[in-house]
TrEMBL record, chain A:
Keyword Cell division among UniProt keywords: no
Pfam entry (one): W2
Organism: Gymnopilus dilepis
Compositional bias per record (Acidic residues), positions renumbered to this chain: 436-453, 477-486, 505-527, 717-729, 747-756, 788-799
Localization per Swiss-Prot or TrEMBL: Cytoplasm, Cytosol
Source species, domain of life: Eukaryota
Descriptive protein name: Translation initiation factor eIF2B subunit epsilon
Region (Disordered): 426-527, 715-799
Family: Belongs to the eIF-2B gamma/epsilon subunits family.
Stretches with biased composition (Low complexity): 766-787
Residue ranges constituting the W2 domain according to the UniProt record: 549-756
From TrEMBL, chain B:
Subcellular localization, as worded in the UniProt entry: Cytoplasm, Cytosol
Family classification: Belongs to the eIF-2B alpha/beta/delta subunits family.
Signal peptide: none
UniProt keyword terms in alphabetical order: Cytoplasm, Initiation factor, Protein biosynthesis
Protein's name in the database: Translation initiation factor eIF2B subunit beta
GO molecular function annotations of the record: guanyl-nucleotide exchange factor activity; translation initiation factor activity
Annotated GO CC locations: cytosol; eukaryotic translation initiation factor 2B complex
Assembly with partners or alone: Component of the translation initiation factor 2B (eIF2B) complex which is a heterodecamer of two sets of five different subunits: alpha, beta, gamma, delta and epsilon. Subunits alpha, beta and delta comprise a regulatory subcomplex and subunits epsilon and gamma comprise a catalytic subcomplex. Within the complex, the hexameric regulatory complex resides at the center, with the two heterodimeric catalytic subcomplexes bound on opposite sides.
Length: 799, 370
């Protein structure tokens, strides 16, 4: 430990010499999970273990050697600003320069805040982006170093997310909001990100197939805790600026960047082996993180060592922390349980019991009171014989004798209840706002007003005679799930302190479903490896169900139109490809659809010329050489699929007879290779198996026959080249069997025709070797079937 | 903060070191002692004072801030005490006042109070005496000006001592380790490492290193020793007792040596020392003299063991187990003086019972509480 940390110190010095490390703190939660505690002050100033969250965040950053911090404040911005000004951080010698930035009230999401960062031009280099409620001891400077090193070789690596392995059921892992990461195990590049909510429950994860094509090995992980520490390059705010609809950093930005074909940016994950980092993102995680701090998981950021509020606590057996300045008065008969923190000047009376709780400074706990798993802020007075469990009590609260506060209650600053109050579970209480306050208030407090106006209907007799509290709505909102995102009522229940949400099918099934989820994704994984070789027509299983038929048809016409425009105006292939990608993004369809549309558009582009095979061939080659490349440019290069699509299209099109020639042209243009044709040929679907009887199937089979013939040619070719030809001469001799221009002919005739055309390509119009083949038509057919069987066998052995 | 409010502004470097100590970005007795010394040198070189009292206050203020920042790194406080002691000595030598009644004869009654019998013969620097005057009304800086070079020299002495501490401890290594002996050690202590390597130059012996969970420093130690050509065995901690019957000597490092002769050392040391007692194997501790602290009652304090991160013991990734188990990961053990035979320091070898004397010689009584 000694030597390691010593070298750490050295590293830090080097870092300092290099350049200033900047950090951006979003000191607003952009949600209301802590209401009503946050009606008077922002979440980042709520104390956790008797120090404001913001101080914990600063300490986490200071630990990493961050030198310049921008704090983006929105709600209660003045309070945040004052808090920063008065804190030790603004003193010289703190080593950190903290600049509070007041952003507009219209900033409703982290995305807006980052757009603001961009317009103000705050950051000049790679920076650390954290939320104002972070508790961490991770060596962020190490992550920054890794990030910068990666940036040196790959300019598209714009972001590194810090994650930590926790296991699925870890208390600190948020149940309401978690995520599935798809990672490349070698480079730890994040290939795909999926947001998972507690409710509605996610049963499956859609992973784009391109990922499996590009990466032979992927990790799909559901056991990672998202620490919300991001190392971002300067491009990140500007990307937010460009994509004005990105709101959330994870759900919109990361997901958007990773699924975008246009941006071509990479995001990486850093799986922290050592250290602790978590966000207080809801009351449940407030509880979990408090416990983590008291149990020293955040060491050296623990109450008796490096307490961000600079309080000094004495650590005694069983993780009991008592303020060290000799101002705490503990009665002889009081009972202090394990994992408890007691702030200075607090008085605990006789027979009081404190278990796993945090008591602020200047509190008074009455005789015979029992407090379990609760968090009590400073200056609060709790009378005699009360019970408080799993609740958060604000500062300056008075709970008079004999009151009972049940689990999950949140009591805001200054509330008075009792005597003999009986609170229901999950009760939320606050005081009325003072008149003066309403002046500068805004839409933000509309819900407070609403709560106030509804007070008459609520029975407050249980709160005791002296109460000044107003009661926040107890029941779920009438309109079920008015919000799509994680803020819906049922999902919020996963975030509530003390709520095990057992009625929402969680506790036991949670494990099942999560493992199920993993296994299903694994299945998908296996399946995909097969999919690229075999069952192509089923590949559309990954299509999100929402893109219905309507959208599909619409998309098809859009593609056709855009391609027509490209054809007539003579765009370059690249431009056309970009246009198609955009189109695909806009209508959210899988890649296969685009490919189908492109192939069909190209095929339909070829004019039919009756009775003149040479002219027809010329046309085909003209079109394919000009536009064939586009098929691969749209992404997801998979020639086998291309051939299948071509076959499927030709089978339903009047251009059916052109199939062979088009295929040959594609081969000539190197868009498909010999092996691809063989692979396609070996697929059961290509033969038209598993299809209904009908003209299409016939056509399918015809196409397949053409393919067999072509493969036969390849084989012939190979033996030829083996015997007497150099590769250079081979080039013009590439076999290009072509379908006949005539439309209605028997397959046998097809064979003949194709042999004819081979002869044409071979150069001489009617030379003897090909003549030999064409005359022995029947035998050649037999031979071809033989070879194709051989092919099949060899394919199988290959697999 | 308090210090800032009431007096001389605290030096910036003190502030920086304090936060580094607090964040544990700098750990280890010698490293912290060195850093403290460098900071104190800066503080003194910039300090304005016109008499000894002021200088002592300035140093104490800085020292207190550093100690408060990390009370578990005792070498910080020790270094401050040592510097104060040296400064007083130099000033007394310079001004000619020989300090409080040092020349009186020894008597057993005054023995404890007097201490410092060996430093008695401090060199008299009579040549400076004439010019040096405290509280000169005409030129308040004259005292500081003429004293500073001497002070810098005094600090340099302490610095030199720190830098050569390993060599000085290892000087007599060959007298402690004999050929074909089996030595048991644990953890990764630079002092012990140097000591063993120095002995290996002249002796041929074996070392058993316990791997010292949960930090597994012992592995590092074993690697280092074996690369120096010492025959090394790495064993799990659980086999310490079983192997003890074959061990000739247990050599341990220390984190801090208390005035009563006990010490705090890497956790596991107590187990090794107790096992050694059961087999009557001598336990020898190698430590720099800067680890000797005038505090003695630390072992009453539960937190003094410095409880570290539980993740070393139980991985954070163990999901819901984290919620159900309380993990305790003390970094140090307190080893009672009865279990230790001798301390080998750069200031000679001492039994635990005479550590108090070493203290008397090294520090001034008035600095025990900074």
């Amino acid at each position: 430990m000694t030597s390691k940390s010593a070298s750490a110190g050295k590293e830090k010095l080097i870092d300092e010499e290099e350049e200033v490390l900047q950090a951006v703190i979003l000191a607003d939660s952009f949600n209301k999970r802590f209401r009503p505690l946050t009606t008077r002050k922002p979440r980042c100033l709520l104390p956790i273990c008797n120090a404001p969250l913001l101080d914990w965040t600063f300490e986490s950053l200071a630990l990493a050697g961050v030198q310049e911090v921008f704090v983006i404040c929105r709600s209660h911005a003045e309070l945040v600003k004052d808090a920063i000004k008065e804190s030790k951080w603004s003193k010289p010698g703190s080593g950190m320069k903290i600049v509070p930035i007041m952003t507009a009230k219209e900033t409703f999401s982290p995305g807006d805040a980052l757009r603001d960062v961009y317009t103000r031009g705050l950051v000049t280099t790679d920076f650390v982006l954290v939320m104002g409620d972070l508790v961490s001891n991770i060596r962020i400077d190490e992550v920054v170093r890794v990030h910068k090193e990666r940036r040196r070789t790959n300019k598209d690596a714009i972001m590194t997310m810090v994650v930590k392995e926790t296991g699925v059921k870890h208390r600190t892992r948020p149940r309401g909001e978690s995520s599935v990461f798809v990672l490349d195990p070698e480079t730890s590049e994040c290939l795909h990100y999926e947001h998972v909510q507690g409710y509605p429950k996610k049963k499956s994860v859609n992973i784009p197939r391109e990922i499996f094509e590009a990466h032979p090995e992927v990790d799909i992980r559901y056991d990672l805790l998202d620490c919300s520490i991001d190392i971002c390059s300067v491009e990140v705010p500007s990307l937010f600026q460009d994509n004005f609809d990105y709101l959330d950093i994870r759900r919109d930005f990361v997901h958007g960047i990773l699924t975008s074909d246009l941006l071509m940016k990479n995001i990486y994950c850093y799986i922290a082996e050592e250290g602790y980092a978590a966000r207080v993102q809801d009351t449940r995680s407030y509880d979990a993180i408090s416990k983590d701090i008291l149990q020293r998981w955040t060491f050296p950021l623990v109450p008796d060592d490096n307490h961000p509020g600079r309080h000094i606590y004495e650590h005694t057996r069983g993780n009991r922390y008592i303020a060290k300045d000799n101002t705490v008065v503990l009665a002889r008969t009081c009972n202090i349980g394990t994992n408890t923190l007691i702030g200075s000047s607090t008085k605990v009376s006789e027979n009081a019991t404190l278990i796993a709780s945090v008591i602020g400074q200047n509190c008074t706990i009455g005789a015979g009171t029992t407090i379990t798993n609760s968090y009590i802020f400073e200056d609060t007075v709790i009378g005699a014989n009360c019970t408080i469990e799993q609740s958060i009590i604000g500062s300056g609260v008075q709970i008079k004798d004999g009151s009972h506060v049940q689990k999950g209650s949140l009591i805001a600053d200054g509330v008075v209840i009792g005597p003999n109050a009986r609170l229901e579970p999950f009760e939320r209480l606050s005081t009325k706002r003072e008149e003066t306050e309403t002046e500068d208030d805004d839409d933000d407090d509309s819900d407070v007003e609403e709560v106030e106006s509804n007070q008459d209907s609520i029975d407050k007799s249980s709160l005791g005679p002296d109460t000044n509290a107003i009661v926040w709505p107890r029941d779920p909102p009438d309109e079920e799930d008015d919000e799509e995102g994680p803020e819906n009522y049922k999902n919020q229940r996963f975030m509530r302190l003390g709520d095990n949400a057992s009625d929402l099918d969680v506790s036991d099934e949670d494990e099942d479903s999560s493992s199920e989820e993993e296994s299903s994704t694994e299945d998908e994984d296996d399946y995909h490896e097969l999919a690229s070789l075999s069952e192509l027509s089923d590949a559309s299983i990954h299509v999100p169900a929402l893109s219905g038929l309507m959208a599909d048809a619409e998309f098809r016409t859009e593609v056709t139109q855009s391609l027509e425009r490209a054809f007539t105006e003579g765009h370059s292939v690249d431009n056309a490809a970009v246009e198609l990608k955009t189109l695909r993004m806009a209508s959210n369809v899988p890649l296969k659809r685009v490919k189908e549309a492109v192939v069909s558009a190209i095929v339909e582009k070829i004019p039919l010329i009756e009775g003149d095979p040479t002219a027809q061939r010329k046309e085909i080659y003209g079109v394919i050489s000009r536009w064939g490349e586009l098929i691969n440019k749209i992404g997801g290069v998979d020639p086998v699929e291309t051939v299948s699509i071509l076959q499927a299209h030709c089978a339903t099109s009047p251009r059916m007879p052109l199939f062979g020639q088009i295929l040959a042209a594609l081969y000539q243009e190197d868009i498909v290779e010999e092996d691809d044709i063989r692979a396609w040929h070996a697929l059961p679907d290509s033969k038209g198996e598993n299809r209904k009887e009908g003209i299409e199937t016939d056509n399918f089979q015809k196409c397949w026959m053409i393919g067999s013939h072509m493969i036969q040619q390849f084989d012939a070719q190979e033996s030829d080249t083996d015997s007497d030809e150099s590769s250079e001469e081979e080039q013009p001799r590439r076999p290009a069997p072509q379908g006949a221009p005539q439309s209605k002919e028997s397959s046998d005739d097809d064979e003949d025709d194709s042999s004819d055309s081979t002869e044409g390509v071979d150069g001489g119009e009617s030379e003897s070797p090909s003549e030999g083949i064409s005359t022995s038509g029947t035998s050649s057919t037999r031979q071809s079937t033989n070879t194709s069987e051989d092919e099949d066998e060899s394919e199988e052995t290959d697999e | 903060m308090v210090a800032e409010a009431r007096g001389p502004p605290v030096h910036r470097s003190v502030e920086v070191l304090a936060s580094r100590l607090r964040r544990r970005q700098i750990v280890g007795s010698r490293a912290t002692a060195l850093e403290t010394l460098l900071v104190l040198r800066q503080v003194i070189s910039k300090a304005r004072f016109s008499n000894l009292e002021q200088l002592v206050t300035i140093i104490r203020d800085s020292g207190r801030r550093l100690v408060d920042a990390q009370p578990k790194e005792h070498s910080v406080g020790n270094t401050v005490r040592k510097v104060l002691h040296h400064i007083r000595e130099e000033v007394h030598a310079a001004t000619g006042s020989t300090g409080p009644a040092k020349t009186t004869s020894f008597s057993i009654a005054k023995f404890v109070l007097q201490g410092q019998p060996r430093r008695q013969v401090a060199v008299q620097k009579s040549e400076v005496k004439a010019t040096l005057r405290e509280n000169d009304p005409d030129d308040p800086d004259s005292f500081a000006r003429s004293l500073k070079p001497v002070l810098m020299e005094a600090i340099q002495d302490v610095l030199d001592e720190l830098e050569t501490v390993y060599d000085n401890i290892s000087k007599n290594a060959k007298d402690h380790i004999h050929s074909d002996e089996i030595i048991l050690t644990l953890g990764m202590s630079k002092t012990v490492e140097h000591f063993l390597k120095a002995a290996a130059h002249v002796r041929n012996y074996s070392v058993i290193v316990a791997e010292t969970a949960p930090s597994y420093d012992g592995r590092e130690m074993a690697k280092s020793l074996s690369s120096a050509g010492i025959s090394t065995f790495l064993v799990p901690d659980s086999s310490i007792f079983a192997l003890m019957s074959r061990v000739n000597k247990v050599i341990l490092g220390a984190h801090v040596i208390l005035a009563n002769g006990g010490m705090f050392a890497k956790s596991g040391s107590l187990m090794a020392a107790t096992a050694a007692r059961a087999h009557s194997t001598p336990v020898v501790v190698c430590a720099g003299q800067f680890k000797v602290t005038p505090l003695w009652n630390l072992y009453h304090e539960y937190g003094a063991l410095d409880f570290g991160n539980p993740s070393d013991v139980l991985g954070f990734e163990n999901g819901d187990l984290v919620d159900k188990v309380d993990v305790v990961n003390p970094y140090y053990d307190y080893v009672q003086p009865e279990l230790i035979v001798a301390y080998i320091t750069n200031d000679g070898d001492h039994p635990p019972s005479s550590i108090y004397r070493l203290l008397k010689e090294t520090y001034d009584d008035e600095d025990n509480e900074l």
